[in-house]
């Protein structure tokens, strides 16, 4: 029982990490997630880490790599549910989760990934570009 | 790391069971869930069992008991993600998940728990009562 389930909520996939991740579990998860994005046409991936008491560089790399794979499949990744103590430890360790977007909880992650929010971002970008041009 | 995270999606709580449940984990989960329903005013609970390869009478009782506790706190429970092999084994074992509503996946569970679906059910009930009266 070392397979991490991938849940579908509308056009978003949700992965809740609750177990100590091993190398092969991570590889399996990446493969499953890529296959699932392709099959469902999902536009967003939410990774919940509220079950994790420790986020080390291994987990950090895993999250960045999942986000990178999702990105080339045209899906955005948001990491949610980080515990306060985990955030503090990560910063102390110099881990910044670069290239990975975060949100406080699943609700905010879903809001961030909703088509409306994407549209709002596009409008913002357009405005920024217009101002710059 | 034997605490099962409870995720909030709108007015629904989502629990994804991925680990072998022990007695104390189940008690902890029931307490956490009851506290969370009270705190958030959640109207629905979705329990995802897609990570489980076996559902025995212990898990069956746990699901029924979570549903019963949620019910007295005015929240409906839907069990989702049952694997086909699990369903077959459960029926062979004579376990019917009595008193527990099921749905194929999280999406359908959310649809079942949405206020509209509840309203539709009320309308249906009213119609049935009218016809009977």
TrEMBL record, chains A, B:
Coiled coil: none annotated. Pfam families: STAS. InterPro entries: Bact_StressResp_Reg, STAS_dom, STAS_dom_sf. Residues 2-113 form the STAS domain. This is STAS domain-containing protein. It comes from Isoptericola sediminis.
């Amino acid at each position: 029982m070392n397979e991490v389930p991938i849940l579908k909520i509308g056009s978003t996939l949700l992965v809740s990490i609750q177990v100590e991740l091993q190398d092969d579990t991570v590889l399996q998860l990446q493969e499953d997630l890529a296959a699932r994005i392709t099959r469902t046409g999902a536009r967003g991936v939410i990774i919940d880490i509220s079950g994790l008491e420790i986020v080390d560089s291994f987990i950090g790399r895993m999250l960045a790599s999942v986000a990178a794979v999702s990105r080339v499949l045209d899906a955005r990744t948001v990491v949610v549910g980080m515990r306060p103590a985990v955030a503090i430890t990560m910063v102390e360790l110099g881990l910044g989760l670069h290239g990975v977007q975060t949100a406080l909880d699943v609700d905010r992650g879903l809001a961030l990934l909703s088509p409306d929010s994407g549209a709002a971002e596009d409008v913002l970008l357009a405005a920024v570009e217009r101002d710059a041009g």
